[in-house]
Each structure stands twice: as C-alpha cells, then as structure tokens.
Backbone:
C-alpha cells in the first residue's frame, strides 16, 4: 500500500525521472503534488503497470493533482553534464514549473542535487512507496514515451516506438547498421562492443 505522505501537514511534491538508461532521446522528469486524501486503485510504480494503465492514469493524475509539471533535459545537455546531473536538472525544471510551491520534495532514488529553496528527502524505490512519486513516475514515463514515438516516425529503423531508446538488441543492431542519429547520446556506449561511429 503506497503512502499518501511522508510528513503530515506538509505540501510534498513527488519527483521521478524516466529515460536515464537510454541511448537516445532526452531524460524527462515530473513533479506532482497530490491532495492529501487522493487514492486510486491502479496507482503504482509505473514499471509495474502496463502501457495502457499508465496512459489511463495520466489524465487522472493531471486532473486531480494540486499541481504537476514535466521537465526535460535534451540528449545534448546530457552529453555536456552527464546523465546523473541531467536527471537532477530535469527534476529541478519540473519543480520550478509547479504552480503551487512545495515545502518538501520526495525524490525517487538515493541522490539529488539540493534545490535552491526547497528541502528534499531521497527514497530508494520511492515510486513503490509514495503515491506522489508513483504519479510523477507515470507522467515522466508517458511524456518521454510520447517523445520517442514521435522521433520513431523520423527514424523508424531504430524501433524507438517499442524500445523507447533503451539498449535493446534491435536498437544496438540498428546503430551498428545505420550509425548514430542526431538524437543519440554521444557520451554513452552505443554498441555492446564499442565500434567507431561517424558521430
């Protein structure tokens, strides 16, 4: 059973990201402030839900949340500052867009770059512990999936409509055959055995 809050009476924003382990595309984060009494029988860690369930929950979260926002950090920014810092930056961008300012950030994971004005606490597997982090995981995942599905229309040979840019065998085989696109993360090991690419 996921918890509604960490500290009672405090405005908390759950934060999570998607796309950290991908070879292509941005990293996307979301921040969500839920009403204290919000419940939904489906709401859980996005990784434990089907694609259909995630897209069913997204408009419910957006409608019922006190505030929500999505932050995006591009593949070029990832290459410049590394994926860990990019994940934190995406969360910061999401938090900074919230229309209600939270008093505490609940972060999925064990590390975070402190926000300038808002304290935080980190939770390993937080998306399976707190409703607000689970809601953020759903928004981050579905918004990033939408980006990758749109990119798939331009680059169908990489199978991003199903892999979402993760390092599947099909994705790596396509990189080996066709090379890297402008959307690939050049700082990542794009092939299992790194082959020289014209990037």
Residues:
């Amino acid at each position: 059973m996921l918890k509604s809050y960490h500290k009672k009476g405090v405005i908390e924003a759950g934060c999570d990201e998607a796309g950290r382990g991908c070879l292509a595309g941005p990293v996307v984060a979301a921040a969500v402030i839920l009403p204290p009494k919000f419940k939904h029988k489906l709401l859980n860690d996005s990784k434990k839900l089907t694609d259909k369930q995630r897209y069913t929950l997204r408009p419910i979260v957006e409608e019922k949340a006190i505030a929500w926002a999505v932050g995006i950090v591009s593949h070029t920014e990832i290459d410049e500052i590394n994926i860990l810092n990019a994940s934190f930056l995406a969360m910061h961008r999401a938090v900074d867009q919230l229309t209600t300012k939270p008093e505490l950030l609940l972060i999925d994971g064990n590390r975070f770059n402190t926000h300038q004005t808002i304290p935080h606490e980190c939770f390993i597997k937080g998306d399976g512990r707190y409703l607000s982090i689970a809601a953020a995981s759903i928004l981050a995942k579905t918004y990033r999936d939408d980006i990758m599905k749109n990119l798939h229309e331009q680059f169908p040979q990489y199978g991003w409509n199903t892999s979402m840019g993760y390092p599947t065998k099909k994705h790596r085989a396509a990189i080996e055959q066709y090379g890297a696109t402008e959307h690939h993360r050049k700082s990542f090991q794009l092939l299992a055995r790194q082959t020289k690419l014209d990037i």
The chain has a mean pLDDT of 95. The chain has six helices and five strands.
